Amino acid sequence: MAAEVRPFLRWAGSKRKLVPRLSEYWDDQYKRYVEPFAGSSCLFLALQPECGLLADNNRDLIATYEVVKESPEALYRSLVALPRNKSTYYHERSRDPARLSEFDRAVRFVYLNRNCFNGIYRTNKDGHFNVPFSADRTGAYFTLNELIECSRVLQNAELRAWDFGTTLRYVKEGDFVYLDPPFAVSRRRVFREYGVRPFDIDDVDRLGTHLRKIADRGADFLVSYADSSEARELARPWRWRRVPVRRHIAGFGEARKRAYELMITNIDRELVANEP
Question: Could you say which residues of the chain have pLDDT below 70?
């Protein structure tokens, strides 16, 4: 496998630290990689499949991927030309993306993502991005070469601004489907505010129905979900394992606690036998 390509976006709930475990489920014999909750696409970028479908109901996210795919150098030059300070941040946040070109919307999206608090994507009821500026802990930008590498991998991806249900209707025999939805958990608060129409409790049953359809079509799936009664019910017909993760939403490092997620799959291998 080629060297891992790092995602250029910060993303709440990113599975980047779990990529080594997630990669165990992948096989180069799959015909296509499908991801209906794209987020930072860290697993897709790490695996670098020859054919992929990346989708998300966040239209600005998918439009940004399109620009990175076609014009990484121009986006990078425009991004680094913007000062990383509070006044510039709030000026960019106040701009109406509907009045911007697709390219300028993408620059704005990446700038806000890389300079906001904890890499959170959150909008108000009107769909306006409302995450505050972060004066520190944002880290250095990716390099131009790193963005060009992301662009190279994205050449193999079809990009769609779709609801997950729409995306999963296009799953075919031989596909590998990775699903990492925002966690809807009834008994405790888990960050899941990724847009105007977030994944909700009612969507868990819908997801379960789609998992059965994916398996019936001769495709394989892998789901990441916070260990909860919802996840346990979702996992009941399938193989699963419980893995520790560290949450990255709390404002300070010492408040970031270890939690657990279930990896749920229909893949029949010893490595994915059920674990308590």
Answer: 1, 184-198, 247-257, 269-276
Instruction: Please give the C-alpha separations between residue 47 and each of 26, 30, 33, in angstroms, as whole numbers.
Output: 8, 12, 9
User: Where exactly are the structural domains of the chain?
Assistant: 16-58+155-272, 72-146
Q: Does domain 72-146 have CATH number 1.10.1020.10?
A: yes
> Are the folds of 16-58+155-272 and 72-146 the same?
no
SS3 state of residue 117: helix
Q: Which residues contact 8 (CB under 8 A, 6 or more apart)?
A: 68, 110, 142, 146, 147, 150
Contact partners, residue 207, CB within 8 Å, separation at least 6 = 164, 179, 181, 223, 234
- Compute the distance between CA of residue 39 and CA of residue 181 in angstroms, rounded to an integer: 9
**pLDDT tens digits, one per residue of 1-18:** 577 899 999 998 788 899
Q: Quick one: angle between helices 59-70 and 102-115, nearest 10?
A: 110
Structure tokens at 242: 């419980």
Joined tokens for residue 27: 């096989």
Q: In CATH, which superfamily holds the domain spanning 16-58+155-272? A: Vaccinia Virus protein VP39 (3.40.50.150)
The neighbouring-strand residues paired with 226 are 261
Question: Among 41, 111, 42, 100, which Cα is nearest to 76's?
Answer: 111
